[in-house]
Structure formats: structure tokens, C-alpha cells
Specification:
The chain is α+β, with helices and mostly antiparallel strands. It is built from three helices and eight strands. It starts with a strand and ends with a strand. The model has no long low-confidence stretch (mean pLDDT about 90).
């Protein structure tokens, strides 16, 4: 049912975060949304690891409270079917933060939490 996982960091200033991860640490940009204009989400790769970096505005646009400094983390988990995965997780007692919806980037998205309240972003 689940395909892979992307650690996603939220940052107050995406340009500063990109300079840090890309320019100082040597990550390579592999994805950017939107493609034109200021990005809301960028994916970077270093060796065999890919991370996502998103603006704090991106999560607010998803109808969730903003990430706080020191807690700007979520796991993005790709699923075959977000609606089915959300239903199965709910049936197992997993809290659902936001029901599945069609995001502006064309993905089907939902949010749940792990047992410690960490956000899990489901997408397809």
C-alpha cells in the first residue's frame, strides 16, 4: 500500500534554507513546486537520501497550523490510494488531522499523526 517516504522540513525562509542545504551541504535540487515564481516546496538529494523543504505558508495553505521553530518536521509517505490508506489508518485508531483532498499541485493528500503526534503527510 505504501511506496516510499520523504522527510519534509518546514522553514521560515526557503531561500536561506536552500543556500544552507544546497550551497553549503552540497545537496542537488531534484524537484520544485511551483516551477515558476517563488517555490513553496523543493526536494534535494545527497547520496541516497532525498529530503523535502517547504515554506511555512505551504502547510498553512493545506489548512493546518504552521510548524513551530524546533518542530518543523513531518514524514511524507506516498500511498497507492490516499483515501483507502486514510480509512485503514483511522480504523486502526490513528488520528486523522485532515481528510483526503485534491491539493493544488495535483496530488491527493491527507494528514494523520503518529503515536507521538508527529505529522504524517499521505500523498498520491
Amino acid at each position: 500500500m505504501f511506496r516510499d517516504c520523504l522527510p519534509n522540513l518546514y522553514c521560515a525562509d526557503l531561500d536561506i534554507a536552500l543556500r544552507f542545504y544546497r550551497d553549503l551541504l552540497g545537496f542537488t535540487e531534484t524537484f520544485r513546486y511551483p516551477r515558476e515564481g517563488p517555490p513553496q516546496h523543493v526536494e534535494l538529494r545527497l547520496g541516497g537520501t532525498t529530503i523535502g523543504i517547504s515554506s511555512t505558508e505551504a502547510v498553512i495553505g493545506y489548512g493546518l497550523p504552521p510548524a513551530r521553530r524546533g518542530e518543523p518536521f513531518e514524514l511524507a509517505v506516498r500511498a497507492d490510494d490516499v483515501d483507502r490508506a486514510t480509512g485503514q489508518l483511522r480504523a486502526a485508531g490513528v488520528p486523522v488531522l485532515r481528510e483526503p483532498w485534491d491539493a493544488s499541485n495535483g496530488q491527493r493528500v491527507a494528514y494523520v499523526t503518529d503515536p507521538d503526534g508527529n505529522r504524517i503527510h499521505l500523498y498520491a
